[in-house]
Amino acid sequence: MATELTWLGHATFRLDTEAGTRVYVDPFLNGNPKCPENERSPERCDLVVLTHGHGDHLGDTVDIAKRFDCPVVAPVELRDWLTAAHDLPEANDQSPNKGGTVSFAGVRLTLTDANHSSSNWQDGKIVYTGEPTGVVVRQDGGPSVYFAGDTNVFGDMALIRRLYAPDVAVLPIGDHFTMGPEEAALAAELLGAPRVVPCHYGTFGLLTGTPDALRPLLPAGVELIDPAPGETLTL
Ligand SMILES: [Zn+2]
Q1: Fold entry, domain 4-224
Q2: How far is the centre of ligand 1, averaged over its atoms, from the C-alpha of 141 (Å)?
Q3: Contact of 7 with 147, CB cutoff 8 Å
Q4: Are 91 and 82 in contact (CB under 8 A)?
């Protein structure tokens, strides 16, 4: 079986590994206007990965984790907050920080840097949920997939290239809260991934970046793959 990546709108992805492990990345399903109706209630999930604590990334995580009793890997403060505020089981093996790698069901997850912020709401107050991150997802015999999370472009993406040689880079392009197409093109150059999948655009009116604006800016040889929400790519 090949690795399959399904875009569920915004920054939400489902990744099915060669071995059949199903991973949700930032599962914002309900409340996500671009999530297909038939994708709002997952039929199974083996692992959830979160890049940061904002509501458009945390999404349905708590419901999914409780329904499928699956691990939720998240930056340490966010993971601890999910235990404290949402009764997820305490699990130190699910709470790495940047540079750390954890493995579940044959999937290796490495948290990377990201330039953004990370918070959520509790009892009417905003709470800090640690540093925002990106994540590199790797598996034996499968592609290296880098999810940038929410970020601007930063020079150390060159280190992500050197360390993890992503085959696919999933980049936000919507502008306003993250980088737009101009910065995403430079990110693609620094990352050196032969394929780029855009996300975090078109969900809300403020997110104006488009794949069509990014395409002509990309370095030669980089393929832009822009699935429709609900569409599955074979990696
Ligand atoms: Zn976001």
Answers
A1: Metallo-beta-lactamase; Chain A (3.60.15)
A2: 30
A3: no
A4: no
Question: What distances in angstroms separate CA 197 from CA 114, 119, 141, 145, 152, one per listed residue?
Answer: 17, 26, 21, 10, 16
Q: CA triplet 231, 208, 130: central angle to 5 degrees?
A: 80
* Whether pLDDT at 132 is above 90: yes
Q: How far is the CA of 150 from the centre of ligand 1 (A)?
A: 6
Q: How far does the centroid of ligand 1 lie from the alpha carbon of residue 56, in Å? A: 5
Q: How far does the centroid of ligand 1 lie from the alpha carbon of residue 138, in Å?
A: 23
Tell me how far the alpha carbon of residue 136 lies from the centroid of ligand 1, in angstroms.
Answer: 18
* Ligand 1 centroid, distance to 1 Cα (angstroms): 31
pLDDT at 1: 72
CA dihedral 127, 115, 60, 94 (to 10 degrees): -90
Question: 117 C-alpha vs ligand 1 centroid, how far in Å?
Answer: 10
The answer to whether 42 and 36 have CB atoms below 8 angstroms apart is: no
pLDDT over 90 (residue 197): yes
Summarised one tens digit per residue, pLDDT across range 68-95 is 999 999 999 999 999 999 999 999 999 9
pLDDT at 159 over 80: yes
